[in-house]
Design brief:
Length: about 230
């Protein structure tokens, strides 16, 4: 094992603790619909709460002969329309949690519609579209600004999480994770270093990537717990 990988493994063991306690890696590389749902509902929620919303949407789409795991933003918006709007969709698929604790804050389902609509208007209809935008500095700025203009998304945290959900660590390492790898191991090739550290330690690569992103984000209080 080379020195860089030894340093990275030691840093991960120090900062992330027992891998058995790491949150399960989540991603929807073929479904922008599920990326949007998860990103909108993730903050301040138990992990099970988000899973339940995702599974209700999956079940609903399966009952229609559709496939939530390949749905884009247009299919998600059509689903809301079928229920007659975000309030009914929230009751049947999502939940009645608002976007914030502010008085008269809109439901998260309302934010979901606004976010999906904003992405579609920018030509971002699929997870592949989102990945392309995330790699294009000229298009990324307007897309991020549109997302952050939606109630409850101003900090940009859920935009970063949205992009993460659409990616696979084998394809693209999140910038925060790459920064951690560079800082702790001195490696410029974050993907190769993560893969090597995971292989030598017997860790799941996707779980390692997610755990590092949560640690490095500094926003763990906003993420769902593993309970």
């Amino acid at each position: 094992m080379n020195t860089e990988i030894e340093r990275l493994r030691a840093a991960c063991e120090r900062d992330l603790g027992d891998p058995a306690g790491w949150p399960e890696s989540v991603g929807y590389p073929k479904s922008l619909a599920l990326c949007i749902i998860d990103a909108i509902y993730v903050t301040g929620a138990r992990h099970l709460t988000v899973e339940n919303v995702v599974e209700r949407y999956r079940s609903h789409r399966a009952g229609q002969g559709g496939d939530a795991d390949t749905d884009g933003a247009i299919e998600l918006l059509a689903s809301v329309d079928e229920f007659g709007g975000p309030e009914r969709w929230a009751s049947e698929i999502g939940n009645l949690r608002p976007t914030s604790t502010a008085k008269n804050a809109p439901l998260r389902a309302v934010a979901l519609v606004a976010a999906a609509t904003a992405l579609v208007e920018l030509g971002v209809e699929t997870a592949a579209d989102l990945r392309a935008v995330a790699e294009d500095a000229e298009r990324r700025g307007p897309a991020r600004a549109a997302w952050c203009g939606v109630p409850g998304q101003r900090s940009g945290f859920t935009w970063t999480y949205l992009v993460l959900l659409a990616q696979l660590p084998e394809v693209r390492v999140d910038a925060a994770v790459a920064g951690y790898v560079a800082r702790e191991a001195g490696s410029a090739d974050a993907a190769a270093a993560l893969r090597a550290a995971a292989d030598c330690a017997g860790w799941d690569l996707a779980a390692l990537h997610t755990a590092l992103w949560r640690f490095e984000s500094g926003r763990r209080r906003d993420l769902p717990s593993s309970a």
